[in-house]
């Protein structure tokens, strides 16, 4: 017989089942005597034998049943679900007259609700398997799925959806909020919100007052929620039943905050929404509206126009007019950036279009400079041929890096549901990382990328200069882009130095006079050479970092995480390294040695280091 202490709830056992000596003191609490447990305490503490014994005694009286509540209006199943006593829950659910949907407690809620409130996901699974109704709401109108979202239990919320709950089920109260709306109004949990977005939550739903989720985010001044809603196409012009847009609400909230803080603070959301509304109402007349409608192309071509105009100004104008021309070119570029909306709800993905344009136009202008000198017969043929070999390699590698999928680990909605149910059923290994956004198991070296909203195999980084993630599928092409660019720019600069030396420009007595002469007599050559010198510095740095990563198996993401880690390592090699030679073979996919000894991260999925360092098998190839 187990007798719990009422203060510390520690249970004491006795060899004699009939012995219930309440005079014995508790071992952990001074001046506290042990008392026999009530049947409800047995459910709370998981004392199944004692519960069965007391149930047998109670069954002899007609006034009590297994569904009878205690003085807190809670049944045995409520308490077992609340404290996650799975063996007690299984026993109770096997009883013939158990009411799995009994309503109790102060909130008049079900055992499923109690289990969800405590994130007891195994108890939830048991109750659902025994036909517990997840749509029964408490006295405030919130059901078990809703309370899981409110509490920020991402996996549990996804499990309810996988078991058939409507992702946009409204609360059963006067407000009629969906779970996404509730997050935007009261407590924005980013992981839970991403999960809801990933499973198809509708951002256009409205509550009983006509508010969208954006209205509610503006009401609570949750700027992150507003950004995510805008990224997913929420209607910024939607009005509630009072005729207010989200911006109207944000202005009211900002005014209230400014009044309370004497102008020291304002709402964070109002600046974002004002810029979005201002941009939406601007640049709507032809031909500017065409540029706005094709914002990505506008951003891409902006550096082409700017650098072209700067080149014309430097070549055609003289004296002070050169400065004016360059300033006008920069101002025109700034205007194009505004038309493309890059500063409205900014993101890496938006700016990558501009930076990709910088990358491609730089390649073009350097090649254009070589072509001009070739036309004048100023360069050696063999050096020019070498340059164009590297130029071709750069163009090919940039194209494949940008257009090739980096290794997206895609899943359908049905697969996500199955993954969550497998996780709850404990079919998944606990050491395997689980992405709460994509709802899938993440292999080693993979990472969820916000820009692409997907997990990427052997994630390296998101590169704005190629407008894509660098991952398992395109990292080799990215390395080719770095290598060919550095070599091509190096050959170009060497040819320019040789050309200027043959022209006698480098014979000036000082560097300043040399620079002045080059700028006066060869403005195009100087401009392109400065552009080339800037690019070779940062591209060369990336090339060195990538060579280091290839030799010792580091990705950019892994180096960043290692630099933040408190557990520093003195080894050059990462934990995924298999030796320098094998690392190089794996990265470039060289057909050397036994095929099963090579690791192709494009196809292999490893979930532990033991799997990685063991001999790969065909079973691991997907």
UniProtKB/TrEMBL annotation:
GO terms for molecular function: protein-cysteine S-palmitoyltransferase activity. It comes from the Eukaryota. ANK repeats lie at residues 107-139, 209-241. Its EC number is 2.3.1.225. GO terms for cellular component: membrane. It is an enzyme of class 2 (transferase). Keywords: Acyltransferase, ANK repeat, Membrane, Repeat, Transferase, Transmembrane, Transmembrane helix. PROSITE patterns: ANK_REP_REGION, ANK_REPEAT, DHHC. The keyword RNA-binding does not apply. The keyword Acyltransferase applies. It catalyses: L-cysteinyl-[protein] + hexadecanoyl-CoA = S-hexadecanoyl-L-cysteinyl-[protein] + CoA. It holds the Pfam family DHHC. It is found in: Membrane. The chain crosses the membrane at residues 295-315, 322-342, 354-374, 379-401, 477-501, 522-554. It is a multi-pass membrane protein. Belongs to the DHHC palmitoyltransferase family. The DHHC domain is required for palmitoyltransferase activity. This is Palmitoyltransferase. It comes from Aphanomyces euteiches.
């Amino acid at each position: 017989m187990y007798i719990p202490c009422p203060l510390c709830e520690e249970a004491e056992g006795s060899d004699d089942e009939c012995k219930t000596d309440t005079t014995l003191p508790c071992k952990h609490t001074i001046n506290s005597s042990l008392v026999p447990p009530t049947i409800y305490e047995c459910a709370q503490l998981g004392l199944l034998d004692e519960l069965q014994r007391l149930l047998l005694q109670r069954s002899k009286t007609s006034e009590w049943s297994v569904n009878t509540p205690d003085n807190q209006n809670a049944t045995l199943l409520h308490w077992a679900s609340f404290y996650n006593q799975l063996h007690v829950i299984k026993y109770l659910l096997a009883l013939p007259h158990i009411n799995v949907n009994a309503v109790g407690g102060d909130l008049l809620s079900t055992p499923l609700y109690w289990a969800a409130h405590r994130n007891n996901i195994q108890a939830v699974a048991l109750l659902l398997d025994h036909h517990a109704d997840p749509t029964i709401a408490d006295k405030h109108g919130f059901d078990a799925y809703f309370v899981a979202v409110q509490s920020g239990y991402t996996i549990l919320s996804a499990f309810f959806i996988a078991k058939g709950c409507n992702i946009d089920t409204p609360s059963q109260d006067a407000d009629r909020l969906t779970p996404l709306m509730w997050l935007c109004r009261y407590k924005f949990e980013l992981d839970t919100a991403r999960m809801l977005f990933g499973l198809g939550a509708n951002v256009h739903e409205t509550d009983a007052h006509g508010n969208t989720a954006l209205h509610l985010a503006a009401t609570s001044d949750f700027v992150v929620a507003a950004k995510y809603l805008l990224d997913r196409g929420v209607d910024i012009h939607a009005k509630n039943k009072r005729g207010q847009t989200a911006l109207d609400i944000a202005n009211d909230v900002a005014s209230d905050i400014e009044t309370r803080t004497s102008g020291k603070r304002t709402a964070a959301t109002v600046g974002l929404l004002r810029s979005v509304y201002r941009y939406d109402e601007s640049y709507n007349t032809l031909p500017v509206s065409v540029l706005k409608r094709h914002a990505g192309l506008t951003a891409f071509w902006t550096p082409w126009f700017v650098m072209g105009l700067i080149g014309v100004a430097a070549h055609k104008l003289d004296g002070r007019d050169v400065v004016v021309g360059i300033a006008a070119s920069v101002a025109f570029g700034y205007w194009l950036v505004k038309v493309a909306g890059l500063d409205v709800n900014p993101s890496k993905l938006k700016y990558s279009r501009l930076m990709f344009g910088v990358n491609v136009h730089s390649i073009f202008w350097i090649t254009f400079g070589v072509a001009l000198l070739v036309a004048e017969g100023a360069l050696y043929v063999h050096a020019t041929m070498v340059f164009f070999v590297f130029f071709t390699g750069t163009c090919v590698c940039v194209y494949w890096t940008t257009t090739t999928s980096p290794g997206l680990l895609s899943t359908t909605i049905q697969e996500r549901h199955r993954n969550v149910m497998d996780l709850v059923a404990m079919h998944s290994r606990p050491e395997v990382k689980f992405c709460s956004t994509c709802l899938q198991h993440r292999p080693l070296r993979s990472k969820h990328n916000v820009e692409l909203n997907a997990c990427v195999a052997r994630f390296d980084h998101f590169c704005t200069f190629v407008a894509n993630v660098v991952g398992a599928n395109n990292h080799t092409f990215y390395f080719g882009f770095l290598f060919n660019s550095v070599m091509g720019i190096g050959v170009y600069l060497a040819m320019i130095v040789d050309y200027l030396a043959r022209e006698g420009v480098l014979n000036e007595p000082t560097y300043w006079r040399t620079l002045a002469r080059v700028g006066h007599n060869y403005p195009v050559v100087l401009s392109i050479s400065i552009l080339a010198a800037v690019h070779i510095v940062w591209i060369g740095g990336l090339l060195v970092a990538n060579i280091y990563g290839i030799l010792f198996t580091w990705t950019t993401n892994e180096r960043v995480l290692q630099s933040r880690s408190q557990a520093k390592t003195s080894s050059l090699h990462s934990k995924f390294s298999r030796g320098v030679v094998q690392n190089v073979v794996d990265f470039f996919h060289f057909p050397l040695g036994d095929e099963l000894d090579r690791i192709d991260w494009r196809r292999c999925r490893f979930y532990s280091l033991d799997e990685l360092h063991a001999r790969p098998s065909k079973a691991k190839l997907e």
